[in-house]
Write a structure and sequence with these properties.
By secondary structure, the protein is an all-alpha fold. It has two domains: 34 residues; 90 residues, Histone, subunit A. The protein contains four helices and no strands. Belongs to the NFYC/HAP5 subunit family.
């Protein structure tokens, strides 16, 4: 890949849609905590995407994927308009799916840690979806209730 202007990629979804850990921060301590929390989450996302970018650049064997390419191809062919699929297309989709899952997990984990838990629960993923603009397409699929989670 071209090395020009490829320093550190910006995190996807950095549109200011971060959770508010202290609603209505009134004291200087709460405002400082909120600012620190925001900066920490932004840094985690930048690190995540920088690592992903480096991993993609170093990849030599594109056929070795964590997600099953045959299943991805089957899903792609579910659309009756799709007649032929190039060999590279499922590979690209597999990588994109991995990155999507990674970012959703990262945002869900942030919610779990904020709530002093070390187990990722359904409500953490729902909170990540509700608090991140790029996941708006999932709002109707995953209920964003904060009720007790399974786990």
């Amino acid at each position: 890949m071209d090395q020009q202007n490829h320093n550190t990629p910006q995190a996807i979804g950095d549109g200011g849609s971060l959770p508010n850990p202290v609603a209505g921060a009134a004291t200087p301590y709460q405002a400082t905590y909120q600012h620190f929390y925001h900066q920490q989450q932004q840094q985690e996302l930048r690190t995540l995407w920088a690592n992903q970018y480096r991993e993609i650049e170093q990849t030599k064997d594109f056929k070795n994927q964590n997600l099953p390419l045959a299943r991805i191809k089957k899903i792609m062919k579910a659309d009756e308009d799709v007649k032929m699929i190039a060999a590279e297309a499922p590979v690209v989709f597999a990588r994109a799916c991995e990155m999507f899952i990674l970012q959703l997990t990262q945002k869900g984990w942030t919610h779990a840690v904020k709530n002093k838990r070390r187990t990722l629960q359904k409500n953490d993923i729902a909170a990540a979806i509700g608090q991140t603009d790029i996941f708006d397409f999932l709002v109707d699929i995953i209920p964003t209730t904060e009720g007790g989670g399974e786990g």
